[in-house]
Amino acid sequence: MSAMDTNTSKKKVLIVEDDKFFMDLLVKRLSGSGFAVVFSQNGKSGLEMATTEKPDVILLDILLPDMDGFEILTKLKEAKNPAPAIFLSNLGSREQLQKAKDLGVTTFMIKATVSLDNIVNEVKKAIGM
Question: What is this structure's pTM?
Fold first, then answer.
């Protein structure tokens, strides 16, 4: 176990995002804001990490290789995973917004119109900071 693992004051953020450039931006910005960040570029490993890493919040894309964000959230809900989830997507139809709400998503942000500062603020809000 590294020193970072034993630092309980750092809140952990799991990012499940297949766009490497966007994920790298998120990792840098969230790490620079004092969060411990873990990430996955596909749905299956993201789901596994949500269980093993026990994040305080999950940033989740909808369109992912092998499993979409809705399926991940459904499985997490079935497993009674308490971490709040924030969707970050370029999709955002009324049906998708309703489905996300029904699955307990705390915030739904459109990638093309959201700033990194907004994302950091929503992460803080989701975990009560």
Answer: 0.87
